[in-house]
Structures are given as C-alpha cells and as structure tokens.
Amino acid sequence: MKNTLSHTSIKHQVSKSAMIKPSKIILLLLTLLLVFATLFIGDHLVKSQQDIWLLLTGEADRYQSIVVWQWRASRLFAALIIGAGTGISGAVFQSLVRNPLGSPDITGFNVGAFTGVLISIAFFGNLYWMSVLGAILGGLFSAILVYIFAYRDGHSGFRLIIVGIAISATLTAFNQWLSLTVSLETAMTAALWSAGTLNGMTWDSCVARSGLNQCFYGLCFSHEHTNEITRNGR
Questions:
Q1: Better-predicted residue by pLDDT, 133 or 85
Q2: CA nearest 130: which of 172, 195, 190?
Q3: pTM higher than 0.85, yes or no?
Q4: Strand (E) positions, the chain?
Q5: Which whole-number Å values give the CA distances from 13 to 37, 53, 88, 93, 162, in the listed order?
Q6: pLDDT number for residue 174
C-alpha cells in the first residue's frame, strides 16, 4: 500500500512538472525576441521591414544574406544547442546528487576538461580534434578521480560535491603551473579555448554538434522518469 502511494505521488509530481507554466512561455517568447534581434538588428544591415522580408524570402542582396544566414544564423544556432546542452547536463547532474551545488563546474569536470585541452595544445599544438579528445579524456579523468575518492560503501551527493571541489582546486593549481611553463602563445590559445567563443562558427561545425546533442537530449528525456525518482530520493 505504501509503495503504491509512493508511486502515485511520483507520477503526480512528474505530470505536474511536465505542465506548461507561464514562466516557460515567457522564456520562449524572450528567446524568440533575442533570435530576431540577433539576426536582423545591426548597423547598415536591416533598415526597414522590407529588408527583413527580403531576407526571409531569399531576395536580399548577397552581402546581407551572407551576414545573416551564413555568419549570424550559424553562431545563433550553435549558441542555442550548446546552451541547451549545458543546461540539461547541469539539471541531470543536480538531480543525481540532489544538491543545487552539484554542477560540472563545481565538481571539477570543467577544470578537468581544460586540463586535457591544455596538455593537448602543449604537446600536439592547436589541433581541433586533438583538443576535443583532450577535453573528453580530461573530463572523464576528473570524473573517475571524484568517483574513486568519494566512494565510501556507496556514494552520497554531499560527498561527491566536497571531493569534486577538492579535485577542482588541485587541477586548477596544476593548470596554472602548466600555463606558466608552456610558451605564451600556447597559454593564450588555451585561455581562449577555456573562455569559449562563437567566432568562426560555421554550419558545417554546427552539424556535428547538433547530432551529438540530439543523441544526448534523447538519452536524457528517455530517462526523465528515473531522474525524477532519483531527485525525490527514492
């Protein structure tokens, strides 16, 4: 009887969380407004509503089309998918550790990824795919360290966060030492990578990111019910 009530309560909470709230509608409208502003607002680009209509119908001049659809639109699309992926990953991580402090930047995963990139650039140069591989391996390495040091007959969200903060501080000190050891050009390249930029983003590079993110989104949403149960401590 108790299990039945518990299961019913969880189903009610899941259905309640799935409802469309006014705040979600407001956020959607603000996102659409920012999309419009990003694409069409700028000096010497769009001067009237007619220019916007020509851009939407594909009848604008070549300069306007390149700026809007090749440069701005690709960066906008990349910002949306990367931002959505970052938000979903943070929400999933917080539901697993059941703590609002549980995020990849607090627990050292981001610092570990930067460590991998810094090592990759120092030894192999500024190669895109080597930097990506270094970020993945660095993030996995920091995650394994947190998992090993936080294990004490099981795991708890609080212990994972405390150990993650310690691992993050250690890797941050290592990154600073390595940045002072390598050349100035290498350190500046790694710092730019760490800060992140959408400059130079093209549609070709967006396609790969979009495909990976779609797989990630599908995996997360397919386990939404499990995440809800975990969040409620059951």
A1: 133
A2: 190
A3: no
A4: none
A5: 37, 45, 19, 19, 29
A6: 92
Mean pLDDT, the chain, whole residue set: 78
Q: Is 155 exposed, middle or buried (0-12, 13-18, 19+ CB in 10 A)?
A: middle
**Closest listed residue to residue 118, CA positions, set 45, 54, 169, 180:** 180
Q: Which of 129, 128, 86, 84 is nearest to 109 (CA)?
A: 86
> Using alpha carbons only, how large is the chain's radius of gyration in Å?
22
Residues, the chain: 234
Report which residue type is found at 7.
H
- Tell me what the mean pLDDT of segment 201-206 comes to: 77
Output the CA–CA distances (angstroms, integers) from residue 205 to 77, 120, 210, 221, in the order listed.
11, 20, 9, 25
Half-sphere exposure of 53 (CA within 13 A, CB side): 3
Q: What are phi and psi of 41, to 5 degrees?
A: -100, 130
**Residue (of 124, 119, 114, 132) closest to 194 by Cα position:** 114
Token look-up 């990953």 returns: 89
Question: Cα angle at 33 between 68 and 100, to 5 degrees?
Answer: 115
CB 121: neighbour CB atoms within 10 A? 21
